[in-house]
Amino acid sequence: MDWAYFLQQLINGLTLGAIYGLIAIGYTMVYGIIGMINFAHGEIYMLGAFHSLITFLICQAAGISGILPLTLLLMLFVSMVLTSIYGWGVERVAYRPLRGSFRLAALISAIGMSIFLQNFVQISQGARVKPMQPLVEGGITLMDNGKFDVQLSYMQIVIIVLTLVLMVVFSLLIAKTSLGRAQRACEQDRTMAGLLGVNVDRTISTTFVMGAALASVAGMMVTLYYGVIDFYIGFLAGVKAFTAAVLGGIGSLPGAMLGGLLIGLIEAFWSGYLTIEYKDVATFGILVLVLIFRPWGLLGKPEVEKV
Amino acid sequence: MTDNKLLEVEHLTMRFGGLVAIDDLSFMANKREITAIIGPNGAGKTTVFNCLTGFYVPTEGRLTLHADDGPRLLERTEGFRIPRNKGVARTFQNIRLFTGMTVLENLIVAQHNRLMEASAFSLAGLFNLGRYAKAESEAIETAKFWLNKVGLYEQADWHAGNLPYGSQRRLEIARAMCTDPSLLCLDEPAAGLNPRESAELNVLLQSIRDDQGVGCLLIEHDMSVVMQISDHVIVLDYGKKIADGDPDAVKNDPAVIRAYLGEEEDDELPPEVAADLHLDPNAH
Amino acid sequence: MASAFASSRTNGPEVVKELAFFAVIALMMSVMILGVETVDRPTGLELAVRWDLVLLAIGSTVVGRLGLIFRRENISRLGQAILITVSAVAVFEMFVRFRDMDDRWASPVFLDMAFSSVVSVIVSIAFLAIIFAAAYFSMKDKTAVEVDESAKLSSKIQLMYRSNTKKIGLIGIIFFIIFPFIFGEDRSAIDLATLVMIYIMLGWGLNIVVGLAGLLDLGYVAFYAVGAYSYALLSQNFDLSFWLCLPLAGIFAASFGIVLGFPVLRLRGDYLAIVTLGFGEIIRVVLINWYDLTGGPDGISSIERPSFFGMAEFSRRVPEGSIGFGELFGMDYSSMHRLIFLYYLILALALVTNFVTMRLRKLPIGRAWEALREDEIACRSLGINPTNTKLSAFAIGAMFGGFAGAFFATRQGFISPESFTFLESAVILAIVVLGGMGSQIGVVLAAIVMIGFPEMFRELAEYRMLIFGAGIVAIMLWRPRGLLSFRDPTILLNMSQKEKVAGEMK
User: Fold this and answer.
1) Biggest alpha carbon distance in chain C?
2) Which of residues 288-307 of A touch B (CB under 8 A)?
3) Range of the domain at C451
4) Whether C275 and C387 share a structural domain
5) What Å distances lie between residue A270 and A23, A267, C289, C345, CA to CA?
6) Tens digits of residue pLDDT in A130-150
7) ipTM, 2 decimals?
8) Residue span of the structural domain in which B237 resides
9) Are residues B136 and B242 in the same domain?
10) Of A14, B47, C381, C407, which is least surrounded by CB within 10 A?
């Protein structure tokens, strides 16, 4: 067994998994609070990637791209703010009026929204792949066994650290603040929370905004990590992140992160050791298996059927 | 009496995680009798029904239905097979009608299995062969019979969801009867009915027992219904049977009275609760 | 202005605040995605700024919002219509300018240019008038009498439609049958009609699954693909004729449906949707990567065309031992013969789908599907096996998808995984949903709207999916259950269909 190769796949998998995990949180929170799959969430992530790319280009044009930390912070901040507004808008336009209507209506509306956003970006920014030069270069060579270097790039460190920080901030937000309390109350019983004075509409909006902010960070990371984006990246990433959310147990925040990491690892090892062509099949296969055998996921609780 | 038994529940236990919903329950229900299961909220009555009708698989115990063709073990039968071939039919605490379909359609869906066979799993039906046409008109006759019985003939073409509440309850009973069961389980059929409707319900249930010869298992809070029509009453509390007998005996059973009215148990309150109660000026 | 709001809940400053809020939102949403374009240059990406688009976006948002406020406060219907029209024109202008950016082509309805010629002026005025009229008449005016009038009108139309569905269906069928006689020589018309008919058939097939059984299937295209590939492969590898392969393709697709459906059909609605989406994608990935069998992304080409029921061929050069279609009927060879034959073939297939669905609805299995859609737990308590019942809907839907796929393969003569993407599933689903779930005539209307119109306005091709996405959202908001979402009872005891409908209207 080639441990160097294994270690490299592990690092790559964790990086990828961190990105999936961040997107998955958006799915899991929205599902937790209004019980629907926010099908357009993948597109929000794609918009985050575009926002960060354009911010970078503006920084470049303004001549401040040399100051790397400032550029990165600007990208993060601008992308989070602008993408969050899309998250808010999507909820407001496509989901809120359908709350309380029959289940499939909201899902279908979400699919429509997803198609709309995808094509909106395609038309406004063009269908071609957008390249981006690497900003954070270099890395640490962890191991060198003569034929294979194990690289931990600085970019990977940034991704993993940033994800960890966001996760901690976020868990605190949910656990400690009144906003988090309102959110948990709405998850339990929306009507009752409303009667007790929780502003349900605002809480749901905030949930979408938070999910979108995290997805935009994931979008920015992907832009920096892979260096290419296009208007179509949202679909696949969305489905995979949803798989991650289901795998971890939909509705559970740590579950989403765990699911994301697992999906990232599975994908990395599958393409590292088996065939790269079928890596998406592996993800979908896992989704199907989880839903059949453990629909409540790894960290979720099984529902007892109410008769 | 033994050859008259319809349902035999032996040592039924149902646990959800750590919660024991039913604890070692045994009872018997006879043919051509109405057996009422009563008890305070959360006593596990509906759980018994869910075990009988296959929605839950009991943790332990044996449920035997003595149908005409011999005994059947309900706990080993898949849920959707239980109502078949003169099996167990049920109604629900919160009415579950097919609200978007008409009253008549509700009653015909209930005869699904017979019709499905007659239509040779749709192949014969597709070309409208005689065999299916005959089966369908029989099904309509059965439906008409029950429509008349529950007084909904005039409303046969209404959407079930548009019926008033009391009629929906009766329709649900008619629908269950259309499956031609040997045991009918009724989950709070009188809930939300006014006194007149409640009296009509009594007549209907008595007729199901006497004219159709179907045994009924009845969960009910309305004691006027329970005491008037049931032949046999079982009282549950916290998943255990605390009384079993004819209505009058049960009515006077001290254990039952205690379960319903409670006893002086201030001393048994956990200290922090007792403290709260004393701090609260509004506490009684 | 202030006086106009005097009697209402909202006062002037509040309105200004609301408008300012939406202006900021519109600014933030558009400032980068619309305001800055990334342009590919040899040296890398560069930026092009288009502030006009941002301004249009903000303008249309603010004006549109003001229109909605007018509507909410029930102020001047004329005012509402004007505002909505202005907002719509701004949005339109915005999208027209996208094209201008890339110099792709100049549009005749491009406003700046439109006013340069008399014809265009008329076109633009007509365009404005249509939007205006649509806005004006769709506005609800709360004066009681008019609401009554419009409700009466719509219920009259509904009554007419619902008590005459059979007649309307018959007229539709006759129209589609004589269609080639009207447009016989117009190649593109026949092509378009054939395409629409494929989607009608797919819509009817999916309607069994989604509309009747209530199972949201986002991977229906998988069965379409299975049908197409099974015909292509059987005909290429075993030299089987189309007429033999057609039923086989249906059987394959149905077995596929059963194999896929069995493990997943117990899942709840939206989980089922995602799993079917996953299956659809798996099949596509396999088609792309299993190069030896499927030809990978290159697909399969020169798939055999169907013969005239094995009796005659449609090609110009008839192979040895068989005769041409023209010869058989003593006509000259025409390339249109094959097209018209293909049109009738898909029409027949679609009508079979329709007939079977209509019939199944009145059979126990169909009623069980609908009952299952309404309440699965009640179904179980009545002795209906939910898994098998759902599986039968899934398999029958898949079978029709398979038939349509085989037809698609033989019509195109070429198939590749490109034709079977998720978007295709979404289009078919949108047809079913737009039409009104469970409504057969609705599917026809929706297929014409969704497939026919965009094909007719090919110039708008790049906006097609954009409008399509927005359209799905809009229809869901307007009528969450679709355009013609009435359920007609499968059996009536005391009244006629007309009485029943009339009773519901009251």
Assistant:
1) 88
2) 304-305, 307
3) 187-481
4) yes
5) 21, 5, 15, 45
6) 888 888 777 787 777 667 777
7) 0.86
8) 1-87+182-284
9) no
10) A14
